[in-house]
Amino acid sequence: MSAALDAQLRWLHAAITGASPPPEPEAAAWLERDGAADASARLHVYRHAYVARLADVLVVDHPKLAAVHPDLRALTADYLRAFPPTHPSVREVGAHLARFLADRGAPAHLIELAALERARVEAFDGGADVTPLDREAVAALAPEDFPALPLRFVPSHRLVALTTRADELWDAIERAAPHPAPAAATRAVLVWRRAVTVVHRTLDDDEATLAPALAAGTTFGDICALLATAPQPAERALALLLRWLDAAVLVSRPAD
User: Fold this and answer.
1) Can you give the pTM of this predicted structure?
2) Are strands 197-202 and 184-194 parallel, antiparallel or unpaired?
3) What is the rounded distance in angstroms from the CA atom of residue 158 to the CA atom of residue 152?
Protein backbone atom coordinates (compact mmCIF):
# COMPACT_ATOMS: atom_id res chain seq x y z
CA MET A 1 0.00 0.00 0.00
CA SER A 2 1.37 3.40 -0.94
CA ALA A 3 1.95 6.00 1.72
CA ALA A 4 -0.56 8.30 0.04
CA LEU A 5 -3.31 5.65 0.01
CA ASP A 6 -2.57 4.72 3.60
CA ALA A 7 -2.88 8.36 4.65
CA GLN A 8 -6.15 8.71 2.76
CA LEU A 9 -7.63 5.61 4.40
CA ARG A 10 -6.60 6.77 7.87
CA TRP A 11 -8.11 10.20 7.18
CA LEU A 12 -11.34 8.62 5.93
CA HIS A 13 -11.58 6.38 8.99
CA ALA A 14 -11.06 9.33 11.31
CA ALA A 15 -13.61 11.42 9.45
CA ILE A 16 -16.29 8.70 9.55
CA THR A 17 -15.75 7.64 13.17
CA GLY A 18 -15.57 11.16 14.52
CA ALA A 19 -11.95 10.88 15.57
CA SER A 20 -11.38 14.14 13.70
CA PRO A 21 -13.63 17.19 13.16
CA PRO A 22 -15.88 17.21 10.07
CA PRO A 23 -13.61 17.99 7.11
CA GLU A 24 -13.85 21.08 4.99
CA PRO A 25 -15.10 20.30 1.48
CA GLU A 26 -11.78 21.14 -0.12
CA ALA A 27 -9.96 18.73 2.20
CA ALA A 28 -11.90 15.81 0.73
CA ALA A 29 -11.92 16.87 -2.90
CA TRP A 30 -10.36 13.57 -3.87
CA LEU A 31 -13.58 11.81 -2.78
CA GLU A 32 -15.82 13.68 -5.20
CA ARG A 33 -17.15 12.14 -8.37
CA ASP A 34 -19.02 13.67 -11.24
CA GLY A 35 -22.75 13.85 -10.56
CA ALA A 36 -22.43 12.75 -6.91
CA ALA A 37 -23.15 14.73 -3.77
CA ASP A 38 -20.27 16.77 -2.44
CA ALA A 39 -17.75 15.12 -0.16
CA SER A 40 -19.03 16.72 3.06
CA ALA A 41 -22.59 15.45 2.46
CA ARG A 42 -21.40 11.97 1.62
CA LEU A 43 -19.15 11.81 4.67
CA HIS A 44 -22.03 12.99 6.85
CA VAL A 45 -24.06 9.99 5.66
CA TYR A 46 -21.29 7.61 6.65
CA ARG A 47 -20.70 9.34 10.01
CA HIS A 48 -24.41 9.16 10.80
CA ALA A 49 -24.63 5.48 9.75
CA TYR A 50 -21.58 4.57 11.84
CA VAL A 51 -23.03 6.04 15.04
CA ALA A 52 -26.58 4.84 14.36
CA ARG A 53 -25.55 1.24 13.77
CA LEU A 54 -23.37 1.08 16.86
CA ALA A 55 -26.18 2.71 18.86
CA ASP A 56 -28.30 -0.25 17.75
CA VAL A 57 -25.62 -2.59 19.12
CA LEU A 58 -25.61 -0.84 22.50
CA VAL A 59 -29.39 -1.05 22.75
CA VAL A 60 -29.48 -4.73 21.74
CA ASP A 61 -26.76 -5.60 24.27
CA HIS A 62 -28.28 -3.42 27.03
CA PRO A 63 -32.05 -3.68 26.56
CA LYS A 64 -32.94 -3.10 30.21
CA LEU A 65 -30.68 -0.05 30.44
CA ALA A 66 -32.19 1.33 27.23
CA ALA A 67 -35.65 0.90 28.75
CA VAL A 68 -34.84 3.20 31.67
CA HIS A 69 -32.22 5.43 30.03
CA PRO A 70 -33.95 6.90 26.97
CA ASP A 71 -30.89 9.00 26.18
CA LEU A 72 -28.70 5.94 25.54
CA ARG A 73 -28.84 6.37 21.76
CA ALA A 74 -28.15 10.10 22.04
CA LEU A 75 -25.05 9.35 24.14
CA THR A 76 -23.59 6.95 21.61
CA ALA A 77 -21.54 9.50 19.67
CA ASP A 78 -19.94 10.82 22.88
CA TYR A 79 -19.33 7.26 24.08
CA LEU A 80 -17.60 6.27 20.84
CA ARG A 81 -15.35 9.33 21.06
CA ALA A 82 -14.47 8.50 24.67
CA PHE A 83 -13.96 4.78 23.98
CA PRO A 84 -13.36 4.19 20.26
CA PRO A 85 -13.83 0.54 19.26
CA THR A 86 -10.54 -1.31 19.03
CA HIS A 87 -11.86 -4.77 18.19
CA PRO A 88 -13.32 -5.92 14.85
CA SER A 89 -16.31 -7.56 16.59
CA VAL A 90 -19.26 -5.35 17.56
CA ARG A 91 -19.57 -7.57 20.65
CA GLU A 92 -16.88 -5.41 22.23
CA VAL A 93 -18.51 -2.06 21.51
CA GLY A 94 -20.22 -1.83 24.90
CA ALA A 95 -17.28 -3.07 26.96
CA HIS A 96 -16.71 0.34 28.59
CA LEU A 97 -20.28 1.60 28.83
CA ALA A 98 -20.52 1.30 32.62
CA ARG A 99 -17.27 3.24 33.02
CA PHE A 100 -18.49 5.89 30.57
CA LEU A 101 -21.70 6.35 32.55
CA ALA A 102 -19.70 6.60 35.78
CA ASP A 103 -17.43 9.24 34.25
CA ARG A 104 -20.54 11.25 33.34
CA GLY A 105 -21.91 11.02 36.88
CA ALA A 106 -24.84 8.75 36.05
CA PRO A 107 -26.86 7.29 38.96
CA ALA A 108 -25.18 4.25 40.53
CA HIS A 109 -28.09 1.90 39.80
CA LEU A 110 -27.85 2.68 36.07
CA ILE A 111 -24.08 2.19 36.05
CA GLU A 112 -24.50 -1.17 37.74
CA LEU A 113 -27.38 -2.15 35.46
CA ALA A 114 -25.02 -1.53 32.53
CA ALA A 115 -22.36 -3.68 34.23
CA LEU A 116 -24.84 -6.50 34.81
CA GLU A 117 -25.98 -6.47 31.20
CA ARG A 118 -22.38 -6.40 30.00
CA ALA A 119 -21.65 -9.46 32.15
CA ARG A 120 -24.54 -11.23 30.46
CA VAL A 121 -23.05 -10.43 27.04
CA GLU A 122 -19.67 -11.77 28.14
CA ALA A 123 -21.16 -14.92 29.66
CA PHE A 124 -22.82 -15.89 26.40
CA ASP A 125 -19.50 -16.74 24.75
CA GLY A 126 -17.14 -16.22 27.65
CA GLY A 127 -15.88 -19.78 27.99
CA ALA A 128 -15.51 -23.12 26.29
CA ASP A 129 -18.50 -25.41 26.26
CA VAL A 130 -18.33 -27.87 29.15
CA THR A 131 -20.47 -30.62 30.62
CA PRO A 132 -21.74 -29.34 33.97
CA LEU A 133 -21.43 -31.48 37.05
CA ASP A 134 -24.79 -33.08 37.90
CA ARG A 135 -26.46 -34.93 40.76
CA GLU A 136 -25.94 -38.31 39.12
CA ALA A 137 -22.17 -37.87 39.01
CA VAL A 138 -22.03 -36.74 42.62
CA ALA A 139 -24.36 -39.52 43.80
CA ALA A 140 -21.93 -42.06 42.35
CA LEU A 141 -19.17 -40.93 44.74
CA ALA A 142 -18.26 -42.95 47.80
CA PRO A 143 -18.88 -40.99 51.03
CA GLU A 144 -15.15 -40.82 51.75
CA ASP A 145 -14.57 -39.12 48.38
CA PHE A 146 -16.90 -36.17 49.03
CA PRO A 147 -14.37 -33.90 50.81
CA ALA A 148 -11.95 -34.08 47.85
CA LEU A 149 -14.62 -33.46 45.19
CA PRO A 150 -13.21 -30.64 43.02
CA LEU A 151 -15.67 -27.82 42.36
CA ARG A 152 -15.44 -24.84 40.07
CA PHE A 153 -17.82 -22.44 38.39
CA VAL A 154 -18.34 -23.06 34.68
CA PRO A 155 -15.96 -21.04 32.45
CA SER A 156 -18.73 -18.77 31.20
CA HIS A 157 -19.50 -17.40 34.66
CA ARG A 158 -19.14 -13.77 35.68
CA LEU A 159 -19.46 -12.23 39.14
CA VAL A 160 -20.93 -8.74 39.42
CA ALA A 161 -20.60 -6.82 42.69
CA LEU A 162 -23.46 -4.41 43.30
CA THR A 163 -24.01 -1.57 45.74
CA THR A 164 -27.56 -0.90 44.53
CA ARG A 165 -30.73 -2.81 43.65
CA ALA A 166 -29.79 -2.98 39.98
CA ASP A 167 -30.55 -6.71 39.95
CA GLU A 168 -34.09 -6.06 41.16
CA LEU A 169 -34.46 -3.36 38.53
CA TRP A 170 -33.42 -5.84 35.83
CA ASP A 171 -35.99 -8.34 37.11
CA ALA A 172 -38.74 -5.71 37.28
CA ILE A 173 -38.13 -4.62 33.68
CA GLU A 174 -38.09 -8.26 32.56
CA ARG A 175 -41.45 -8.89 34.25
CA ALA A 176 -42.94 -5.52 33.27
CA ALA A 177 -43.42 -4.88 37.00
CA PRO A 178 -43.07 -1.61 38.96
CA HIS A 179 -39.46 -0.57 39.27
CA PRO A 180 -37.88 -0.63 42.73
CA ALA A 181 -36.78 2.68 44.16
CA PRO A 182 -33.01 3.27 43.84
CA ALA A 183 -31.38 2.29 47.12
CA ALA A 184 -28.09 1.07 48.52
CA ALA A 185 -27.92 -2.72 48.71
CA THR A 186 -24.58 -4.54 48.75
CA ARG A 187 -24.81 -7.90 47.02
CA ALA A 188 -23.21 -10.16 44.43
CA VAL A 189 -24.79 -11.51 41.26
CA LEU A 190 -23.63 -14.67 39.53
CA VAL A 191 -24.07 -14.71 35.74
CA TRP A 192 -23.54 -17.81 33.63
CA ARG A 193 -24.58 -19.57 30.44
CA ARG A 194 -26.77 -22.63 30.86
CA ALA A 195 -26.89 -24.51 27.55
CA VAL A 196 -27.62 -21.64 25.12
CA THR A 197 -29.33 -19.35 27.62
CA VAL A 198 -27.67 -16.74 29.84
CA VAL A 199 -29.09 -16.56 33.35
CA HIS A 200 -28.16 -14.78 36.53
CA ARG A 201 -29.00 -15.03 40.21
CA THR A 202 -28.37 -12.84 43.22
CA LEU A 203 -26.32 -14.84 45.70
CA ASP A 204 -27.10 -15.40 49.35
CA ASP A 205 -24.60 -13.71 51.65
CA ASP A 206 -22.77 -16.93 52.47
CA GLU A 207 -22.72 -17.90 48.80
CA ALA A 208 -21.10 -14.58 47.99
CA THR A 209 -18.27 -15.34 50.42
CA LEU A 210 -17.74 -18.69 48.70
CA ALA A 211 -17.84 -17.33 45.15
CA PRO A 212 -14.15 -16.37 44.84
CA ALA A 213 -13.09 -19.87 45.90
CA LEU A 214 -15.48 -21.46 43.42
CA ALA A 215 -14.26 -19.14 40.69
CA ALA A 216 -10.65 -20.20 41.30
CA GLY A 217 -11.40 -23.86 42.00
CA THR A 218 -11.92 -25.50 45.37
CA THR A 219 -13.23 -28.71 46.95
CA PHE A 220 -16.38 -29.64 48.77
CA GLY A 221 -14.30 -30.11 51.94
CA ASP A 222 -12.97 -26.58 51.65
CA ILE A 223 -16.51 -25.27 51.13
CA CYS A 224 -17.50 -26.96 54.39
CA ALA A 225 -14.50 -25.39 56.12
CA LEU A 226 -15.40 -21.93 54.83
CA LEU A 227 -18.89 -22.40 56.30
CA ALA A 228 -17.56 -23.62 59.63
CA THR A 229 -19.07 -20.74 61.60
CA ALA A 230 -22.53 -21.16 60.06
CA PRO A 231 -25.26 -23.11 61.85
CA GLN A 232 -25.07 -26.73 60.68
CA PRO A 233 -22.23 -26.06 58.20
CA ALA A 234 -22.25 -29.53 56.60
CA GLU A 235 -25.99 -29.36 55.93
CA ARG A 236 -25.67 -25.87 54.49
CA ALA A 237 -22.76 -26.91 52.29
CA LEU A 238 -24.77 -29.85 50.96
CA ALA A 239 -27.84 -27.66 50.32
CA LEU A 240 -25.70 -25.19 48.38
CA LEU A 241 -24.04 -27.98 46.42
CA LEU A 242 -27.44 -29.31 45.34
CA ARG A 243 -28.52 -25.78 44.37
CA TRP A 244 -25.43 -25.32 42.22
CA LEU A 245 -25.81 -28.75 40.62
CA ASP A 246 -29.44 -28.05 39.69
CA ALA A 247 -28.39 -24.67 38.25
CA ALA A 248 -25.73 -26.36 36.05
CA VAL A 249 -23.15 -23.84 37.25
CA LEU A 250 -20.37 -26.21 38.36
CA VAL A 251 -17.74 -28.36 36.75
CA SER A 252 -15.68 -30.94 38.59
CA ARG A 253 -12.21 -29.64 37.95
CA PRO A 254 -9.33 -28.70 40.24
CA ALA A 255 -7.76 -25.26 40.20
CA ASP A 256 -5.10 -24.63 37.53
Assistant:
1) 0.87
2) antiparallel
3) 12
